[in-house]
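User: Show me a protein chain along with its predicted structure.
Assistant: Here is one chain, sequence first, then structure tokens.
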Amino acid sequence: MNWTYTLSGLLVGLIVGITGVGGGSLMTPLLVLLFGVSPATAVGTDLLFASLTKTLGGWVNGRRGMVEWKVAGLLSLGSLPAAVITLVLLKYLALDKNTLGSLVTGMLSVALLLTAAALLFRSRIKQFAQRNDGTVCGLHRRYLSAATVVTGIVVGTLVTLSSVGAGVLGTVALMFLYPRMPPAKVVGTDIVHAVPLTAVAGLGHLALGTVDLVLLGSLLMGSWPGIYIGSHLSARMPEKVLRPVLVTMLLAIGCRMVFV
């Protein structure tokens, strides 16, 4: 066990507990930039880390009735096959370490910048989706199920390659597609969808040999108490302060990952 990894898990767990932002957008870059973990191993380890940490949250939200199971099913209909196909392609292509690292780093940079943009414009996206005229209203009437499956495909591919996307990007996509869904159900549905997605993608990376189990254990030792403490502090932290800080962090990390 490496206690610096545990301390990092505690820090990320606190931030996730306070803000609700997915750990992938913080943990994976931290492992790559600060600890020098290879990008592929950082992604694979973080995916299993995410599946284990989100399982309890998914169970709690399900028990509380905060999940739209049909929507979660439609997302999974797209994301799980996309994750499997992406993993099969990675296995079939048998990329060398440097090429795989470059691919993962590039996807991670894109995912982080998209996450920052989603956080920055989340309120405006929701307001636009709630308008009673225009293309969004037409989308809801005719193509909503198909659009949800396509969203799952995009998220599944992005998560498998970068470990980022199942949190902020997933919730913003749901806010756009289902603007009348209560925010608590948006979060609960996104968490429930993320559990099987990160588990499938993480187990696939484990089969590919891009998971460090010792690192995983060290991170979990810190993250579980961090999330618990952070969730109790969240009510005291003003969102108007937290959101700009998070957006700035993600933009900086995303730009930095471009030059890894």
